[in-house]
From TrEMBL, chain A:
PANTHER family: SPERMIDINE/PUTRESCINE IMPORT ATP-BINDING PROTEIN POTA, SPERMIDINE_PUTRESCINE IMPORT ATP-BINDING PROTEIN POTA. Residues 3-233 form the ABC transporter domain. GO terms for molecular function: ATP binding. SMART domains: AAA. Keywords: ATP-binding, Nucleotide-binding, Transport. It comes from the Bacteria. This is ABC transporter ATP-binding protein. Belongs to the ABC transporter superfamily. It holds the Pfam family TOBE_2. InterPro entries: AAA+_ATPase, ABC_SmlMolc_Importer, ABC_transporter-like_ATP-bd, ABC_transporter-like_CS, Mo/tungstate-bd_C_term_dom, P-loop_NTPase, Transp-assoc_OB_typ2.
UniProtKB/TrEMBL annotation, chain B:
This is Extracellular solute-binding protein. PROSITE patterns: TAT. Its main location: periplasm. Keywords: Periplasm, Signal, Transport. The keyword Cell membrane does not apply. It is found in: Periplasm.
TrEMBL record, chain C:
The chain crosses the membrane at residues 9-35, 68-92, 99-123, 143-169, 200-226, 246-271. It is found in: Cell membrane. This is ABC transporter permease. The keyword Cell membrane applies.
Length: 356, 401, 286
């Protein structure tokens, strides 16, 4: 592996902000560290950067143990959430900064800055100061400053959090394109699952300083390894209840649901997640498509463009379904049958683990 | 405007307003009252009994317990402001100070200057019985500097007196050397001399030396009067400047206050310095207590001549006849009472103009020169420099040299 | 009240304030400087005599040069001391930061006179330093007794708290994560300091410098109590004109010269320093 984290932990007072993390990241891999705020993902990134020292464990980059190296000797670059452009330097000088630190000849600096100005469409802004730029322009300069030194890895700490949605989606595509073009690992910290899903090769879900799972993005989304991931990634309906001997779950909300065969004993508590888009809707009375069916009433319809979100009343609780607009539309107040297959469910034991 | 009157007027107006409950009237009264309250401290009444007695004085004469008793008896607050030199006090008075101060202190010729310029007013010795205890040389018939030549009325009361003699470390400086002003310019004592920071006395004292060296001290003077070290010719001033510049190398520092000089002398860092004999007396008291064992002596009048001063209490011209003047005179009377003067002598180390021999031991009588008041006539009284501009230039050139 | 008039009214307050407390005294000083005095009397005839005296009489030029050298030295020393002190408070002060800052303000609560006199006690022939030296059998330090060195020590002591406070505030306002950014992009800690921390706090440092330099230029007390016979500085000489010799007009002219010198010094610094290069936008951070 190109970057290896070997049993990395970081303690602050009594709290383990990063707890025994082992990770291997390949060259030219795009990895996201996804987790809620305070989960330790930024600390982990700062440990890789060298801005924090791990309490225990080692960090290896390109085969070299860099655990004790200060940040400026690690050869990695970083893009910060607040951009952190040098306010007293022009765009050109900000971009040239890493190259000057590398003591490159002036001609090469000019050439490389010109290259980065070109790929990030910053032409004409070179003489401006950061506070004379829009948020998107600042973000591009920050990204350019990260790329210009051809680092061994680029670390991105929620770089898009301060941008508006449209700009963010544009930048997601662009960042991914540059990563592919440069062929270096990008390690991308975010709490936004959409960003993680849209760009990453693999996603590491971070929770309470630990890596909950580190897997290809489809796997993280389609077969979450823990209840936490199922809850955190994608939008799901959650059922809790007790298993009976017949492979059925008696949910606390009053549904009886057929569950996939699993190594869970009868009478044990279990959690079950069904993604919103797996919940199919049919008019009440029609034969439901899935094995499990629940009689609901449409409470509200939220139009999302290509699809519609339905808020359904089932007994005392709400369920959420997301259906393409190409399907039959339902109106608020309509009685519907929501159904899904056992295969579309993710079942977890009371500890939130997937039963083996 | 007489704000205290307006203040009471507002108070009177407030009474009917509160009974008639006329809102507008009440508001008006309130506003007037507030205005009067705000302005009252800044504008003084012309005739009302004062609530404050403001003095511009030397700090060394402050006796907190005596003043507390006075405040208690006359129901006034005593508010002193201190100054370091006559010209500073004079400056303060000239720029509106007569409205800011009731009592003023000055010495030598300065009171007559103040009176000519209407900065101070006449006083009545009959209202101040303590003046009967003045030594004969300070009574108005002998001491002319506090009496208006035209009317014969007094405008000040003598308080303490002294010289600007040389206090020296008798273990280090022989008496015959200390008897001359030359000692302050003697390279033998280089780095161990000190003078005050006051430009007038430094120049005047050096002026006496220069004039006696040049022989101009007993020659006819350009102004036809006898020699006055505060009226120096340009040639003499040139000599003073040269001498002061030479002296600079020999000085450890120019002391800013008596406490500093006392420390410097007591520690032996300084062996001779001109001063008002106050430090000298403090040092003798210390020696008597066994705190130091160096012997100090004081040359009252150097052989070339010396400077002398009589501190006086004056009443500012801003004080009108009546209650205001009465309080001022009562204060002066208290301060010049023999019992108070005894305390002042001990606290400040000054000789008194009031005869307190009956209250003093023979040693005190000697120490405070109570039998030597006659020597005052041999001294040149503190005065205003003939040209402060010229003197200032001499002083600045010396400082920059 | 609201709307049309509130703006001018609100701006009127600082304007009136400036007029009453700054412009009027300055104007009266300028007027006085073109008059003359004669034995404690102001003579109101317009003349340039005071300025002529200041220009031709070497003494006053000497005072000014002495003061300029003294103020520059003291300000540089203060900045050099204040930087590590403020930096240490920021880095290691933790939750006691505020306490440290307040502690630095404590000397302001006592008067300047008191502080100078305390220092006189410390540096004088009987002072703590020489007392200890002599008790140890060593010779007393002549150069700290009533010399310009003593004045300089006094001035550093008087104005260091201001400089520390100003630089501390500048550092507090400074986004220290920019240092992280610099390090990530290859700057060693020392390089990061000179590339980022120093330039971005240069403006604050200059304010600290000026807040030390300008009062040092007009210092009166420290040279008077500590400076000794050769320690007369411009401010002290100027104070003599007002306090003792009654040569107010000359003193006023000295004041005008001092004011112009201060302005020139500040202007020179402003012209030398490109505020943009200190990250200063004039509109706060961002």
């Amino acid at each position: 592996m190109y970057i290896t984290l070997d049993g990395v932990s970081r303690q602050y007072g009594d709290i383990w902000a990063v707890d025994r993390v082992n990770m291997g990241i390949g060259q030219s891999e795009f990895v996201s560290l996804l987790g809620p705020s305070g989960s330790g993902k930024t600390t982990l990134l700062r440990i890789i950067a060298g801005l924090e020292k791990p309490t225990t464990g080692r960090v290896l980059i390109d085969g070299v143990d860099v655990t004790d190296l200060p940040p400026h000797r690690r050869g990695v670059a970083m893009v910060f959430q607040e951009f952190l452009l040098f306010p007293h330097r022009t765009v050109y000088e900000n971009l040239a900064f890493p190259l000057r630190m590398l003591k490159l000849p002036k001609a090469e600096i000019e050439e490389r800055v010109a290259w980065v100005v070109g790929i990030l469409s910053l032409a004409g802004l070179e003489k401006r100061y950061p506070n004379q730029l829009s948020g998107g322009q600042q973000q591009r300069v920050a990204l350019g400053r990260g790329l210009v030194g051809r680092p061994k890895a680029l670390l991105l700490d929620e770089p898009l959090a301060n941008l508006d949605r449209e700009l963010r989606q544009e930048m997601e595509v662009e960042i991914r394109r540059h990563q592919i073009a440069l062929g270096i690992p990008f390690i991308y910290v975010t709490h936004n699952q959409e960003e993680a899903l849209s760009m990453s090769d693999r996603i590491a879900v971070v929770r309470r300083g630990r890596i909950e799972d580190f897997a290809p993005r489809t796997q993280i989304y389609d077969t979450p390894r823990t209840a936490f991931i199922a809850q955190f990634v994608g939008r799901s309906n959650r059922f809790e209840g007790t298993l009976d001997g017949a492979g059925m779950l008696a949910s606390d909300c009053g549904a009886r649901l057929a569950v996939p065969a699993a190594g869970l004993a009868a009478g044990s508590r279990a959690m079950l997640f069904v993604k919103n888009e797996k919940l199919r809707l049919d008019p009440a009375g029609a034969t439901p498509a899935g094995a499990n069916s629940l009689a609901c009433t449409v409470k509200d319809v939220i139009l999302r463009g290509a699809y519609a979100d339905y808020i359904l009343a089932f007994g005392n609780r709400e369920l959420n379904a997301s259906r393409p607009r190409s399907e039959r539309a339902f109106l608020a107040g309509e009685a519907v049958t929501a159904s899904f297959d056992a295969a579309d469910m993710d079942l977890f034991d009371a500890d939130g683990e997937r039963p083996s | 405007m007489k704000p205290h009157e307006s203040h009471s007027a507002a108070a009177q107006a407030a009474a009917p307003a509160s009974s008639s409950v006329d809102r507008r009237q009440a508001l008006k009264t309130l506003a007037a009252g507030a205005l009067a309250t705000v302005t009252a401290p800044y504008i003084r009444p012309a005739s009302a009994a004062p609530t404050q007695l403001r003095a511009l004085m030397w700090e060394g004469y402050l006796l907190p317990d005596v003043i507390a008793g006075f405040e208690e008896k006359y129901k006034v607050k005593f508010a002193p402001t201190f100054f370091d030199g006559n010209s500073e006090a004079y400056n303060k008075l000239r720029v509106g100070g007569t409205k800011d101060f009731d009592l003023v202190q000055a010495d030598g010729f300065w009171p007559s200057l103040y009176f000519r310029e209407k900065l101070i007013r006449t006083v009545d010795y009959a209202k101040m019985p303590s003046t009967q205890h003045l030594f004969p040389v300070f009574k108005p018939d002998q001491y002319k500097l506090l009496t208006d030549e035209k009317t014969g009325v007094q405008f000040g009361v003598p308080f303490c007196w002294g010289s600007y003699g040389t206090t020296y470390n008798a273990d280090q400086v022989p008496a015959e050397k200390a008897a001359s002003i030359e000692v302050l310019f003697d390279p033998e004592f280089g780095g161990r001399l000190s003078t005050s920071a006051r430009f007038e006395e430094n120049i005047a004292l050096t002026g006496i030396l220069v004039a006696s060296r040049m022989g101009t001290i007993d020659k006819p003077r350009p102004d036809g009067k006898s020699f006055n070290p505060y009226v120096l010719t340009d040639a003499e001033l040139d000599g003073v400047e040269k001498l002061l510049i030479e002296q600079k190398k020999l000085l450890l520092t120019r002391y800013q206050d008596n406490a500093t000089l006392e420390q410097l002398l007591a520690s032996g860092a300084v062996v001779a310095a001109p001063e008002f004999a106050q430090v000298y007396r403090l040092l003798l008291a210390k020696k008597a207590k066994g705190e130091i064992d160096t012997t100090f002596a004081h040359t009252l009048v150097p052989k070339e001549g010396g400077l002398g001063w009589v501190d006086t209490w004056l009443v500012s011209s801003g004080v009108p006849d009546g209650a205001g003047l009465d309080v001022c005179q009562s204060f002066i009377d208290l301060m010049t009472a023999p019992e108070t003067m005894k305390k002042i002598a001990l606290a400040s180390g000054c000789s008194t103009t009031i005869d307190i021999r009956s209250l003093s031991t023979p040693e005190e009588q000697k120490l405070y020169l109570m039998d030597r008041t006659g020597e005052l006539s041999k001294m040149y009284m503190f005065d205003q420099p003939s040209s402060t501009e010229k003197w200032e230039r001499v002083w600045s050139r010396m400082q920059a040299a | 009240m609201k709307g049309r008039w509130s703006g001018p009214l609100l701006l009127g307050v600082p304007t009136a304030f400036l007029l009453a407390l700054f412009v009027l005294p300055l104007v009266s000083m300028v007027v006085l400087s073109f008059w003359r005095t004669e034995n404690y009397h102001i003579v109101q005839d317009w003349n340039l005599g005071n300025y002529l005296t200041l220009a031709t009489e070497g003494a006053y030029v000497t005072f000014l040069v002495r003061s300029l050298v003294m103020a520059s030295l003291v300000s540089v020393i203060c900045v050099v001391i204040a930087w590590p002190v403020s930096y240490a408070i920021i880095l290691y002060g933790g939750r006691y930061r505020l306490l440290f800052t307040l502690a630095f303000a404590v000397p302001f609560l006592t008067g300047e006179v008191l502080r100078v006199i305390a220092l006189q006690g410390l540096l004088g022939p009987l002072g703590l330093i020489n007392g200890v030296l002599m008790a140890l059998g060593a010779a007393p330090l002549r150069f700290i007794m009533y010399t310009n060195v003593a004045s300089a020590i006094g001035l550093v002591y008087l104005y260091l708290p201001i400089v520390v406070t100003v630089i501390y505030l500048s550092l507090l306002n400074f986004d220290a994560r920019l240092i992280d950014a610099a390090k990530i992009f290859g700057a060693s800690p020392a390089r990061a300091f000179f590339e980022i921390t120093w330039p971005l706090n240069l403006f604050g440092t200059l304010i600290g410098f000026a807040l030390c330099f300008i009062p040092c230029l007009s210092a009166t007390l420290a040279p008077r109590f500590l400076g000794g016979p050769n320690g007369t500085l411009y401010g002290m000489a100027m104070a003599q004109q007002f306090g003792e010799s009654g040569t107010w007009a000359l003193g006023a002219a000295m004041g005008v010269v001092l004011f112009l010198t201060s302005i020139l010094a500040v202007l020179a610094v402003c012209l030398k320093v490109d505020l943009r290069r200190t990250g200063f936008t004039g509109f706060g951070r961002g």
